[in-house]
Amino acid sequence: MRALMVDRPLPAVLIPGRYAGPWTEALERAIRDELLVREAARRGIDAPTRAQQIAELIRREQRDGHGLTADDITDGEARAWYEQNRALFGKVEQADVAWAEFTNGPQARKLLESVTGTDQTTFLRLVREADAAHNGTATIDHKAEGADPMIARAAFAVGTAGGVGLAPDPANNRWWLVRVERISFERVTWDAEVTYQVKSALAAHRQEEHLRRLTDSLRKQWPVDVNETRIADMVKRES
To answer: What angle do CA 53, 59, 65 make, to 5 degrees?
Structure first.
């Protein structure tokens, strides 16, 4: 293994079900904004710009919705959500991972789908069958030591036992596929500041989920056709 030094921002870690890459993210955001503008117009919301139209629609949705602000969230709800999302707040104490390094971006992206939901033994078998340049297991500590920094970066981003992620480093022609076997986090002191942070994060999560459901309902009203072939070509060129 080699620790690769980079002089430019790295692409985000790709995590199935959470982040699928900039092209997919940009496409979904563009579709959402177009649908929200149409819905704002239907409701008679007028503003100098599209962005202001969307902002006013979102403001009204949050005002009329239930449980979408930090003030609406109880301490019990906040604690329960915190326990389910420790990776968002606590520093990693230790993580046991399996990993594989590839020199082919499209191959690594395709394999990311195949290894999702597998156990560690199957993960290692699949990456070896795919001719990974290097692969193995490692234990990473709270200082991100114990493995290549790219492996630690992916593991900390995944933050969930059984989860997988792909850390791209196209500038160095390396893609790191990582599966988290076990992960633990340092405990935080539950005080007023942490309570506020957790409630704010939960409110933001609920707002995003509310917008997603609204967008899904609007897509049924105004169907959207996407040229999957062109999108796939863009993703391939990006990789």
So the answer is: 135
Verdict on whether the full-model pTM lies above 0.85: no
CB atoms within 10 A of CB 164: 26
Q: With H, G, I as helix, E, B as strand and everything else as coil, classify residue 141.
A: strand
- The DSSP result for 144-196, as a single string, is S-SS-HHHHHHHHHH-STT-EEEEEEGGGTEEEEEEEEEEEE------HHHHH
Q: Which residues pair with 95 in a beta bridge?
A: 140, 183
Please give, one letter per residue, the 3-state secondary structure of 56-118. HHHHHHHHHCCCCCHHHCCHHHHHHHHHHCHHHCCCEEEEEEEEEEECCHHHHHHHHHHHCCC
- Tokens for 102? 């590839």
* Mean of pLDDT over the chain: 87
Query: Residue 15: enclosing H or E segment and its boundaries?
Result: none
